[in-house]
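pinging the channel bc i need a second pair of eyes. not urgent but kinda urgent?? the chain im working w is below, pasted from the shared doc
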Amino acid sequence: MAAPNKGRRPAGAQSKPGRSLLLILIAMVALGGGMFLGGHTTPRLGIDLAGGTSITLKAKSEPGKPNAVNKTNMDTAVNIIDRRVNGMGVSEAEVQTQGSDNIIVNIPKGTNSEEAKEQVGTTAQLYFRQVLTTGAGSPTANPSATPSPSATPSGKSTAKTTASPTPTGSSTPQGRAVTDGLKADASPTPTPSASSSASAAEAATAAKLQKEFTALDCTTKAGRTNASLGAKPTDPVVACSEDGSEKYILGPAELSGTDVKSAQAAISQQNGAWVVNMDFTGKGSKKFQTTTTKLSKATDPQNRFAIVLDNQVQSAPSVSTTLSGSAEISGSFDQKSAQSLANVLSYGSLPLSFDIQSTSTVSAALGGEQLQAGLIAGAIGLALVIVYLVAYYRGLAAIAILSLAVSGILTYEIMTLLGPGIGFALNLPAVCGAIVAIGITADSFIVYFERVRDEIRHGRTLRPAVERAWPRARRTILVSDFVSFLAAAVLYIVTVGKVQGFAFTLGLTTLLDVVVVFLFTKPVMTLIARKKFFADGHPWSGLDPKRLGAKPPLRRSRNVSASTDPKEA
């Protein structure tokens, strides 16, 4: 006789339901505690339910780039804007193209939504340029050499610019300062005639820049944003400081935003102010080292380099030694503005410039009406499911209803915590996904109930029927839920926008269905099998052997055969 398999529990063996029920109870209490301790008691809502702001951006062609507005650049811009907005922690922000040159950005109300609006159309073109000449921001100011803090030897430059009015009668030679700066990057000229031509070109460029510099009014927003608009990185330019108190003539770009590896907001260890730390790529670090070496040998103001973001000088520190590896932008930053700038720099510059065509407020009234209609439809569907369960399964319907309630509580708690956790926001398609999940969850209960009934029809009592039915029901439930989850995952990957909310919710509730069936429905079935009402097959238990057409037990049939008259044998 074969030895019994001690490592495997028989199919009819009784499980220990208390552990599973305790585990799911702890999970529910922990999730609920996390909600209340975090101050988040309701799920975050998407723009269709909470309202928000819709911004329309129109791409514009720049001088010298007539074909820049194309599908490739528009798709790149959509990707960068989406990363910026969601990088600020704004969930359910929708960024999509409309036509050939428009981008629609929908930002729901919520945390950091105002900061995200400011970043939507920011081009974020970053350049490092040598300062050739400086002056106060008014259009009548003469150029002057404004002192600035020196760079620290650690490789991070303290970049707070200070604007001081130029003394009347300043003797700084305006044209020479510009010409000398341009000559610093000029290649050696092989012949006297070429040298004369280059000198003439430099003088003409210097005169043009000087004229633009003198006329530039940095005290107006138009003057600050339109200075040198459309200029190439290789051109010398005029620019304003961000606050308009100072203006500059700057040399060609030495580095660009593509040379920045990462940017991060931090608190300066020197003065406790908010700054933005930038780390350069390997190639960018070499460029920065070469540039700072050159600047350290120049005199003020040409020993300064300007950090220019979207044609505005964020800071212009002086350099006294060779630096490499990283740089620090400082100025009148607070935490919000420092994090905003770091976020923009981290995700790169837009390939196009945009004008904000319109900004409108989206009301949540329409979405609220649709949500109400959806909830009513969901309630009707749930009621019909309950009516069917009560009519067909009678007492077993109580287990199904309790399981649906547990699944609903877990879904609500997880959705609420996912809002601040990963930026999840509940929208109308997500609500639809949760309603569809009611049918998926109810289907799992029905599969198990029918397996138990099949065992009773074959003559088994309830307690062994519950345990023997579980392995077959478990396999069916897992296969069914795997197919549903796979469909939700594929839908989430191949779609964009609100449809992803439907797919995410459907996948989440499918996983929760497995958890609830394993840790709640099955243990509760084990417990009720010990109750007389269900174990004896009460007509209202849903497990009445007579109503199910149960056959006499196979073992009893053998006993009857064995007890017949021996003479007949």
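so Confidence is low (pLDDT under 50) at residues 6-14, 145-190, 554-569. and The first strand starts at residue 52 and ends at 60. — does that match what u expected or am i reading it wrong
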